[in-house]
Amino acid sequence: MAYHSAFTPQDQEASAEQLASQRGWLLLEFGAPWCGHCQAAQPLLAAAMQARPDLAHLKIEDGKGRRLGRSFAVKLWPTLILLHDGQEVGRLVRPDNTAAISQLLDQAAANS
User: Fold this and answer.
1) Low pLDDT (below 70) residues in the chain
2) How far is the C-alpha of 61 from the C-alpha of 9, rounded, in Å?
3) Which whole-number Å values give the CA distances from 49 to 3, 10, 62, 77, 85, in the listed order?
4) What are the Thioredoxin domain coordinates in residue numbering (predicted)?
């Protein structure tokens, strides 16, 4: 699965329980469409994801009343969380360079 530029609609958003039962590697991206830090990270994330087209990417809009972000203790946006078989194995908050994102994604490549 490739990089996604749009947020998942709230009515289609997975629950924490569904994500915990997910098999394989999954990159969660928590943020908001109006967030400047999130917007700035998009080209960096897109570039890093080009090297990992096999990695599933789920872009989740976070904010007031959104429980999924709270269940993952998201405090700042964007927050990238790498899951393997439903368990968190890596996290990156407010990435500001492609190398940092690639290093997070390399955890999936090294352990596949």
Assistant:
1) 1-2, 11, 112
2) 8
3) 6, 23, 21, 18, 19
4) 1-110
| CA 28 vs CA 43, 58: distances in Å | 16, 5
Confirm if 95 and 45 have CB atoms less than 8 A apart.
yes
User: In whole angstroms, what separates CA 12 from the centre of its chain?
Assistant: 16
Place of tokens 């990695």: 55
Contact between residue 3 and residue 46 where contact means Cβ atoms under 8 Å apart? yes
> Where do the domains of the chain lie, and which CATH numbers do they carry?
22-110 (3.40.30.10)
Helices 36-50, 98-110: crossing angle, 10 deg rounding = 50
